[in-house]
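Here is an idea for our session: we take a single protein and study its fold together. Which protein we use is up to you, so please pick one and set it down. Once you have written the record down, we can walk along the chain together:
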Amino acid sequence: FIIGRDMAGTKSTVTGDDFYGAYDAQDIGKKFSSELGMTVTHYENMVYVGPEDGYVEESIAKSQGKKAAKLSGTEFRRLLRAGEEIPEWFAFKSV
């Protein structure tokens, strides 16, 4: 069973801070995997580091000192609503 990064992500309506950590959903899934009868697959956040290497795990990019291109879900939705260009590294043009 795959539980991605930030699957439990919700913002506090008062402060805007994350209520759960980015990997809390994975940790909870792993903790109860035998009770649920499933195996949880680790899935780290993937980041784009350029055309040569493409996407790599965030921890690898950090350890190699590579700068990751970032586009938040909020910014992506804003670009879509505004009809603005989506970076090709983030989504295929057909999307």
Observations:
- The helical segments are 24-31, 33-36, 58-63, 73-82.
